[in-house]
Design brief:
The complex is a heterodimer of chains A (248) and B (489). Chain A has 248 residues and is α/β, with parallel strands linked by helices. In chain A, the strands form 3 sheets. A 6-stranded mixed beta sheet of chain A has the order 6-9-10-3-11-12, sandwiched between helices. In chain A, strands 2-1-4-5 form a 4-stranded antiparallel beta sheet, with helices on one face. Chain A has a two-stranded antiparallel ribbon with strand order 7-8. In chain A, strand 1 and strand 2 form a beta hairpin. By secondary structure, chain B is of the alpha/beta class. Chain B is built from 13 helices and 19 strands. In chain B, the strands form 2 sheets. In chain B, strands 1, 2, 4, 6, 7, 9, 11, 12, 14, 16 and 18 form an 11-stranded mixed beta sheet that branches. An 8-stranded parallel beta sheet of chain B has the order 3-5-8-10-13-15-17-19. Chain B is globular. The termini of chain B are far apart. Classes of the chains: A alpha/beta (248), B alpha/beta (489). At the A-B interface, helix 2, strand 7, helix 3 and strand 8 of A face helix 10 and helix 11 of B. The complex binds adenosine-5'-diphosphate and magnesium ion (MG). Adenosine-5'-diphosphate binds next to helix 1 of chain A.
């Protein structure tokens, strides 16, 4: 089967130096991968690079997404082609309601794909349904994007966006951190709902905890800018028990 | 021969040299370039004005000749040659395009983005032979305009051009004209008094809540009054009116200098809401061309518990010099000023408001949102003055500046003069930028860089935009995005 995402020998630098130093990763449609690693190992750098953040410069390597050179695309083009990044630190946009933001972005993606925009009523129905499932009230959907939200609320909000946008490849950067156990269950349900034969999920996490609810097919350890070990779900448990130092 | 007849002849003689000759057809009538007493007389004569108004104009003209053009604003422009300007029905310096094919594609793209129908695009772009009653066309002009007029008539609202009002309601015009902006007020206002061509007159009778938003869209002959426009709105006791000025579509206009005067008067318990979207030609990327907009707008809250609210979205013009103000004379009266001023490329704006608290318990609120991009300069200039007799005054001012890029400038110049110790004055000011994080977040969700800027800017301006009447607000939102195009790298 063809790969959904194929990362080869990826090197990424920021102003202060090289962070990713030859990372390889292949993800097939239908799979859920988890990347674990200590703080500062480059997990968010990988996520941001895949989504096209211009602050991260690819100095070497290749990324193919659905047969296409992903790195040649602008961030918004990647989004329209189905790449979604759940941010570790979602950004505040004062004065723009969640609903307005979501509708504007969704319709921008649809336009890029040559689809008709969703009309107001259809959109509202969709947004209401997804928000409800993730325990986000319509009051919150009317508030400015992430302004004054707690850490957990921000993460849930990311999941509402994901559910409405319905991406092909979801890259979730520490979506589980800052969530209490109830919220973690709700969010996990949201992630599981996205699983499907033609989709893939890349979970970036620090803890085993999330993986109890969202069962990964593959687990990778990222250390110092490279994947140092890969395995099945049992690898996550091993990491939890022995710590990164021993495993990597 | 009477003085005016003589003038008419003299002007006719001078004008004879012009290509379009001398005709009684209003369209092609014009006076020669330059300004002197004869021109003032000619303008008055053409409008068939009563003697008192001619005298009023001449008095203003005499004053104007002794005044100096102000230079305190943070604006830089070459000296204006006032003798090189047409003061009456200026002929187009260029022939209008023959069809939309000849119109600047940039302009058409903007119309398209604003969702303006083709027929109307032609009117706005000045295509030859396009229908006269410009924007009405959209609303199925004649029928809508007629229904509209009838409904207003039924409740006694007077809504007409000021030249008509001079004849139909001379007592009202005479009573109020120049009472809020005195003839001597400032250089540009004085000039306007001498040469104003036309404008809008509104009178809302006692206790009437105007049943619809009054818009220049619906006023016949609304086009071509732009250069020295004069507006007078009177809200009698207990009445309410919301007035919309302007158009979100960029207007093709050959006149570089605009000097309008707007006077609002609110009597006891009356409320006037005045909204403007100004989108005149800002000049090209290098600052060539563009309108100079020197406008004097002032509202007088004469009655107790009256209210005047200014909302403006300023995106056009090369130079903007504009301070819509409120004189809060009646006890308990309220003045509000909500402003979004966008400058891009080489545009310069010096705009703000004055709130003059005279009555007791008067309140004012100022929300100003400046957005600068390119090599532009954007200044907020505001005055809050509390007179000695004005007890228990409250003012809240919030002045925010948003910078896009690092070649633009934003300035805030607040003046606060308080002569009564019971006043509570609050002033907040912020300067911010659109962060890279915000840009990336929006783009990662599917917005291109211009859409990303537009949504963040609209959020920033929301407090002002929500004051606009619904339909206007939607257009203004689109306009903000369009005005900032090319401002991200
Ligand atoms: N935008 C940035 N500016 C400066 N340093 C950065 C930036 N992004 C990441 N880094 C640095 O790169 C390293 C990897 O960071 P990151 O990818 O965020 O790691 P992780 O998500 O695994 O904790 C860290 O040392 C971090 O400080
Ligand atoms: Mg991280």
């Amino acid at each position: 089967m063809t790969q959904m995402l194929d990362i080869k020998n990826l090197h990424v630098a920021i102003e202060d130096g090289t962070i990713l130093k030859g990372l390889d990763l292949k993800i097939k449609p239908g799979e859920v991968h988890a990347i674990m690693g200590p703080n500062g190992s480059g997990k968010s750098t990988l996520a941001a690079t895949l989504a096209g953040n211009p602050a991260y410069e690819v100095t070497k390597g290749k990324v193919t997404y659905l047969g296409e050179d992903l790195l040649a695309l602008e961030p918004h083009e990647r989004a329209a082609k189905g790449v979604f990044l759940g941010f570790q630190y979602p950004v505040e946009i004062p004065g723009v309601s969640n609903l307005n933001f979501l509708r504007t972005t969704l319709n921008a993606q649809r336009r890029l794909r040559g689809e008709e925009p969703l009309d107001g009523a259809t959109f509202m129905k969709l947004a209401r349904e997804k928000a409800e499932k993730l325990g986000v009230s319509m009051d919150m959907m009317k508030r400015s994007v992430n302004v004054g939200f707690s850490g957990g609320e921000k993460k849930r909000n990311e999941m509402v966006q994901m559910a409405v946008i319905d991406p092909k490849l979801a890259i979730l950067d520490e979506t589980d951190s800052g969530l209490d156990i109830d919220a973690l269950k709700v969010v996990s349900d949201g992630i599981n709902a996205l699983r499907g034969a033609d989709r893939a999920i890349l979970l970036i996490t620090h803890y085993q905890r999330l993986l109890d609810y969202v069962k990964p097919d593959h687990v990778h350890v990222l250390d110092d800018g490279r994947i140092t070990r890969s395995g099945g779900p049992e690898l996550a448990r091993e990491l939890e028990e022995k710590g990164y130092q021993a495993v990597a | 021969m009477s003085a005016t007849a003589e003038t008419k002849d003299r002007v006719a003689e001078l004008a004879g040299a012009y290509k379009h000759g001398w005709s009684t057809d209003i369209e092609s009538v014009f006076a020669p370039k330059g300004l002197n007493e004869d021109i003032v007389r000619y303008i008055s004569e053409k409008q068939n004005e009563p003697e008192w108004l001619l005298e009023w104009r001449l008095k203003a003209f005499a004053m104007w000749q002794k005044l100096e053009e102000p230079d305190w604003a943070m604006l830089n422009y070459p000296p204006i040659d006032y003798q090189d300007i047409y003061y009456y029905a200026a002929p187009k310096t260029k022939e209008g395009p023959n069809s939309l094919d000849e119109v600047d594609p940039e302009l058409l793209r903007t119309y398209e983005k604003l969702g303006i129908p083709i027929a109307e695009q032609a009117v706005l772009a000045g295509v030859k032979g396009a229908p006269k009653v410009a924007v009405d066309a959209v609303f199925d002009s004649v029928s809508v305009a007629t229904t509209y007029r009838e409904e207003l008539k039924r409740v006694g609202v007077v809504f007409m051009s000021i030249s008509e009002a001079v004849h139909e309601h001379p007592e009202l015009v005479k009573k109020y004209l120049g009472t809020v902006v005195p003839q001597r007020d400032n250089y540009f206002a004085t000039l306007n008094c001498a040469v104003f061509s036309d404008g809008t007159f509104v009178y809302i009778p006692k206790g009437v809540r105007c049943p619809m938003e009054l818009s220049t869209y619906f006023r016949i002959n609304a086009e071509n009054t732009g250069q020295f426009e004069r507006t007078l709105i009177i809200a009698d006791e207990g009445s309410y009116v919301s007035y919309l000025e302007g158009c979100t579509a960029p207007m093709r206009d050959e006149n570089q200098l605009h000097a309008a005067v707007v006077e609002l008067i609110a009597l006891d318990d009356a409320e006037i809401k005045y909204s403007t979207v100004q989108n005149w030609y800002p000049g090209d990327k290098d600052g060539k061309g563009g309108i100079y907009n020197f406008v004097t707008k002032r509202g007088l809250c004469r009655g107790r518990n009256s209210k005047i609210s200014w909302t403006q979205v300023e995106t056009g013009s090369a130079i903007t010099w504009k301070y819509p103000s409120c004189i809060l004379e009646g006890d308990g009266s309220v003045g509000e000023f909500y402003s979004v001023a966008v400058t891009n490329n080489r545009q310069q704006a010096d705009t703000g408001t004055k709130m003059i608290h005279i009555g007791k318990n008067t309140r004012s609120k100022i929300i100003s949102k400046g957005i600068s991009a390119g090599h532009s300069s954007n200044t907020y200039r505001g005055l809050v003055r509390v007179l000695g007799g004005a007890d228990d005054v409250r003012n809240f001012t919030q002045c925010d500046s948003l910078l896009l890029g690092d070649t633009c400038a934003a300035h805030t110049v607040p003046y606060i003069e308080v002569r009564n110790p019971t006043a509570q004055i609050e002033h907040e000011a912020t300067t911010s930028k659109i962060s890279d994080d915000q840009m990336f977040y929006c783009m990662a969700r599917g917005l291109d860089p211009e859409e990303a800027v537009a949504i963040v800017v609209n959020g920033y301006a929301k407090e002002v935009l929500r004051e606009l009447p619904m339909e206007f607000a939607v257009e203004a939102q689109a306009l903000l995005g369009i005005s900032l195009e090319g401002s991200v790298g």
